[in-house]
Specification:
This protein is of the alpha+beta class. Helix content is 28%, strand content 26%. The strands form 3 sheets. The protein has a 4-stranded antiparallel β-sheet, covered by helices on one side. Strands 5-6-7-8 form a 4-stranded antiparallel β-sheet, with no helix packed on it. A hairpin with a 5-residue loop joins β11 and β12.
């Protein structure tokens, strides 16, 4: 018998035709959130340590991306998710009689990750879908990122592994990986602010960023302030900003590549380029205020991917 949490969703009685319609909603809302609510650790500092939640276009942390996605899904088709948490990461799991659909805009997949019971082999269902960024190999062929989902049906546990193609390596490598257990259900949303402050103040948050997928060219770009590699008194130093383009190439502030990436990021979120920089640097000032002076963050790589 499957883990009991598998019976908590409200899609178990959905018919095949209705499920197809719900699936269309899943696909459209996932695409909307990936494009219009970018992942932004900088936004989380504004939300929980600053003046409050910024406009959605300036982004949210992974949990709030999932919560907004779920709100829009429920508004459009009436179904609600189960939330499981792993390492501070919270996707939305939609359960029905035939399987589970995972929607996770933080691991920005192009289409919903559908785990059907009919694909079960030896008690396990495995599925992969394309994700952003969609990079380009030296021969010009596309190299989409990949989101792998594994469902251990009897145990009711899951694993999500997000892989990116690295042009410098010429191969794929795991970029993020999470395992979700039935006991890791989020009991209520939104997550208490006190808990979120503890998560953001922990050493695992080693950078502040805004990561966007542009509505027109569907390319991913990111502006990042690493919190490592310099003395603590220089934590709020805009000279340490970098950007990453769709290929994972790093450009420091002041270089043409940085300005190109910043222009696209600003266009995506609908503000002037300098406002994007100020948004990240104001988050850095908040981080500097709340983090212990002896804080040591894990290294953040500033090399091309």
């Amino acid at each position: 018998m499957s883990a009991t949490w598998m019976d908590t969703g409200d899609m178990t009685a959905v018919s095949v035709g209705e499920r197809q319609s719900v699936g269309d909603v899943f696909a459209s809302v996932l695409d909307e959130i990936v494009r219009t609510v970018p992942y932004s650790s900088a936004a989380s500092f504004h939300q929980f340590f600053g003046a409050g939640a910024p406009p959605w276009a300036m982004g949210r942390g992974c949990g709030w991306q999932a919560f907004e996605l779920a709100r829009q899904v429920e508004e459009q088709c009436g179904v609600s998710p189960t939330y499981l948490v792993s390492g501070g990461h919270v996707p939305a799991f939609y359960i029905d009689g035939e399987g589970v659909t995972v929607l996770d805009p933080y691991l920005p997949h192009v289409t919903p990750l559908r785990l059907d019971r009919s694909r079960e082999s030896d008690g396990i269902v495995r599925v992969e879908v394309d994700a952003y960024p969609i990079r380009v190999r030296p021969d010009g062929s596309p190299a989409p990122s990949r989101l792998r989902g594994t469902w251990w049906v009897r145990e009711g546990s899951f694993a999500l592994e997000y892989l990116r193609y690295g042009p410098r390596r010429g191969d794929y490598a795991a970029y993020r990986a999470y395992t979700f257990q039935p006991a890791s259900m989020v009991p209520s949303t939104p997550i208490p602010e006190g808990l979120m402050r503890k998560v953001l103040a922990s050493p695992m948050q080693n950078n502040l960023s805004i990561r966007t997928v542009h509505r027109d060219d569907r390319q991913m770009r990111e502006i990042v302030l690493p919190l490592t590699g310099r003395p603590r008194e220089r934590l709020v130093d805009r000279g340490c900003l970098i950007s990453k383009d769709n290929q994972g190439a790093v450009s420091p502030i002041g270089h043409p590549g940085f300005d190109r990436n910043l222009e696209f990021i600003a266009d995506t979120v609908g503000v002037a380029p300098e406002e994007v920089v100020e948004f990240v640097m104001d988050a850095a000032a908040l981080c500097h205020r709340i983090a212990p002076l002896d804080r040591v963050w894990p290294d953040y790589s500033v090399e091309d991917e």
